[in-house]
Amino acid sequence: MSVSCVMGRKILGFLFALGSLMLGTGVSGLAQGVSQTKVLKLMGSRFEVTAVAENEAACWNAINAGIAEIQRIEKLISSWDPNSQTSMVNRSAGIKPIAVDQELFDLVARAKKVSKLTDGAFDISYASMDRLWKFDGTLAQVPADSAITRALALIGYQRIMLDGESTTIFLQDKGMKIGFGAIGKGYAANRARMVMKGMGITSGLVNAGGDLIAWGQQPDGSPWRIGITDPNNREEVYSWLSINDQAVVTSGDYERFVMIEGHRYSHIIDPRNGYPVKGIKSVTIISPDAELSDALATSVFVLGEDLGLALINKLMGIECLIVTDDNRLIPSGKLYLNYYKP
Ligand code: AMP
Ligand code: MG
């Protein structure tokens, strides 16, 4: 997802690559300085990190620091890496609490807040379903109802126990599992921005596999332009946003899915029934915070158009754009005015 990339990772990637090229070669010397971009694979996705600074060396210093920060976070939150704190928590489910870094503890606490806000539509303990719904090409048939019912019993954010005194996380039941697929890239984008801003970079952009945050402006003083991927054709952009200090994050059913007997099952799971969500093709969330945008994009996807839209319209400073399965485009209350040109 993603916007500015939001929605179409590929097209966005392409556009950004184009943008970077223009910035990197043609704009040097303008009022704001020069910009440089690094494209690389991190957290299993295509990332782009762009810095605007007075000279190229300053850009690269900041870009490298931003990338190191993302790699550090990946080590902390990965559930694939058996040595991560997250994997230790998962292995110890139903056995014992695990002491973790304050950072991981806080991330889980914020994830639980989003679960509360969304009445459980967003739930990092959805991950017990990872064992059944596999999107790596190995799933040949829909998992048995009985297996889904068993895994469903292991989902429940209320049973992710946090102890602030000892900074421990305890998953109450054996087999429970947490995963940060719906929030980790947004968090990493926020952190990379923070590190780069701390180094004096007043304009830049981090595109974490389509979850994007931008600050300041392009070297010529114009706002960053973000293309939202067309969920029907990842190679196309269907809408553009001009942003300065915003995160644009998209959840899309086209990102990871499996086709079984002509039906598409996508990677966002409804924690209330254990099945992939239907009804929506993509949700783009615009807010000042990439982690929040990331979490809410997944949440609105699960909540569906009515409840999802009602939630976003209740929240100040957060807008969304939903594309339904039947290709209706639904903007939140203020999006039309601010960003969206049909
Ligand atoms: P995103 O692209 O941000 O919407 O994240 C989707 C990813 O989040 C999936 O690939 C899963 O790893 C994870 N996920 C799936 N369903 C949920 C859910 N209901 N709550 C939290 N995370 C989920
Ligand atoms: Mg998300």
Quick rundown:
This protein is of the alpha+beta class and 342 residues long. 33% of the residues lie in helices and 26% in strands.
Could you explain the architecture of this structure?
The chain has two domains: 3-77 and 183-339, T-fold; 85-171, Orthogonal Bundle (T-fold). The strands form four sheets. An eight-stranded antiparallel β-sheet has the order 1-2-6-7-10-13-14-15, sandwiched between helices. Strands 3-5-4 form a three-stranded antiparallel β-sheet, with helices on one face. It has a two-stranded antiparallel sheet with strand order 8-9. The protein contains nine helices and 15 strands. Strand 14 (319-324) and strand 15 form a beta hairpin. The protein is of the alpha+beta class. Bound molecules: adenosine monophosphate and magnesium ion. The site of magnesium ion (MG) has 7 residues, from helix 7. Magnesium ion binds at residues 182-183, 251, 294-295, 297-298.
CATH class of the largest domain: Alpha Beta
Main sheet: strand order: 1-2-6-7-10-13-14-15
What's the name of the CATH homologous superfamily of the largest domain?
A: ApbE-like domains
**Number of alpha- plus pi-helical segments:** 9
Nearest-integer average pLDDT: 88
- In the CATH hierarchy, the architecture of the largest domain is Roll
Rg, nearest Å: 20 Å
Biggest sheet statistics: 8 strands, antiparallel
Poorly predicted sequence stretches spanning 5 or more consecutive residues: 1-31
Distance between the termini: 20 Å
Q: Oligomer, anyone?
A: single chain
User: Order of helices and strands, N to C?
Assistant: HEEHHEHHEEHEEEEEEEEHHEEH
In terms of structural class, how would the helical and strand content be classed? alpha+beta
- Helix coverage percent: 25-40%
Taken from the alpha-carbon principal axes, the silhouette is globular
> Ligands in the structure?
adenosine monophosphate, magnesium ion
Number of strands: 15
Which percent band covers the strand fraction?
25-35%
How many structural domains in the coordinates? 2
Task: Find the CATH topology of the largest domain.
Answer: T-fold
